[in-house]
Structure to design on (262 residues):
């Protein structure tokens, strides 16, 4: 098993937090959270096919979850960690809970789906077109400018997307469109917070209700008016949520409870 790149920051010996990024990104997307949670031991991972781990082949969500479990056992304080994942990272966190719940303390998971995507046959041609465009700097620059990113983050977004393995991109999406929440999560008792931006699509926002109904010790919250990458759009709220959840204190008032979802 080839090693993943990890940016290790914060306080050695403090409780560990593992951060898992979205597709096409890398550890740069957690910059604000890492800085604000410096009193913890932070392990900010570049996933297979991404960032400084782009030479590590992407195999599957399960294989990546196994990588993360091994990382936690070898580098986290006392061999276990809190896990924070968004989008692709959130799906990995769900599979990690299914396969290796013993290395996870508490989990914060944002922007995931709970069932296969509709119209999957139409997505395959779009996937191949998008994978072609992702190697065109003009297109990637346009995507970066459309996001609420600082100039430094725009640069990181562009360079990481251009460097991403196309094999990884295609395999991830082929698996993601057929993803469903593992039913064995009903046996996983780890405290888990399922979140989403309130402006995301229904296939994502509904998970703040559906997944906590499956898991015995989970809650759901929406961030009203926020999009998929709301850890960047509203970094203070996202970070306050993470800190509250992993310390067992009340969640920020700016979040909307799952039962309020239409």
């Amino acid at each position: 098993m080839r090693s993943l790149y990890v940016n290790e920051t914060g306080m050695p010996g403090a409780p560990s937090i593992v951060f898992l990024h979205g597709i096409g990104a890398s550890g740069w997307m957690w910059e604000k959270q890492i800085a604000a949670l410096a009193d913890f031991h932070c392990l900010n991972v570049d996933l297979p096919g991404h960032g400084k781990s782009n030479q590590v082949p992407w195999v599957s969500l399960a294989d990546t979850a196994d990588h993360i479990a091994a990382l936690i056992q070898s580098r986290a304080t006392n061999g276990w960690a809190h896990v924070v994942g968004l989008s692709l990272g959130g799906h990995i966190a769900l599979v990690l809970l299914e396969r290796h719940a013993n290395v996870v303390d508490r989990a914060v998971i944002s922007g995931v789906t709970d069932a296969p995507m509709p119209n999957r046959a139409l997505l395959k041609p779009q996937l191949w077109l998008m994978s072609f465009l992702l190697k065109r700097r003009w297109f990637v620059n346009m995507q970066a400018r459309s996001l609420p990113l600082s100039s430094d983050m725009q640069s990181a977004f562009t360079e990481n997307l251009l460097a991403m393995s196309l094999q990884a991109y295609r395999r991830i999406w082929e698996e993601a469109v057929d993803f469903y929440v593992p039913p064995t999560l009903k046996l996983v008792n780890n405290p888990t917070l399922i979140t989403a931006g309130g402006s995301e699509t229904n296939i994502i926002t509904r998970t703040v209700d559906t997944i906590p109904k499956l898991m015995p010790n989970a809650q759901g919250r929406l961030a009203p008016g926020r999009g998929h990458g709301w850890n960047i759009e509203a970094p203070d709220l996202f970070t306050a949520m993470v800190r509250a959840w992993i310390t067992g204190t009340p969640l920020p008032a700016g979040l909307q409870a799952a039962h309020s979802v239409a």
